Amino acid sequence: MEIKEITGEKEVVRILVDSNEETTFSLLKTYLEEMSETDVVGVYKEHHLVNKTEFLFKVKKGDAKKILKKSLTDIKKKLSELKVE
Predict the structure, then answer these.
(1) CATH class of the domain whose range is 3-79
(2) Beta partners for 43?
(3) Which of 30, 29, 36 is nearest to 13 (CA)?
(4) Domain residue extents for the chain
(5) What are the tens digits of pLDDT across the range 49-78?
(6) DSSP 3-state assignment of 76?
(7) N or C: at which end does the chain have fewer Cβ atoms within 10 angstroms?
């Protein structure tokens, strides 16, 4: 997966990748939807044969990039704490 574009303002982050990367974004979307700061979060695929996926995250207030980075750190921590039996 290669990140083709990251754009944003203070309250909005948009990430465009060159693959069918719905799985990673779905995990992130599920996590972000539970946060009180989240206004809108979504994953958009034009078509399953088109290698392009867009992720959009908008917060009610605060810095979207900082909140996104914190959520990625939290997810990574939770995944590292999982025990495989």
Answers:
(1) alpha beta
(2) 55
(3) 29
(4) 3-79
(5) 778 889 999 999 899 999 999 999 999 999
(6) helix
(7) C
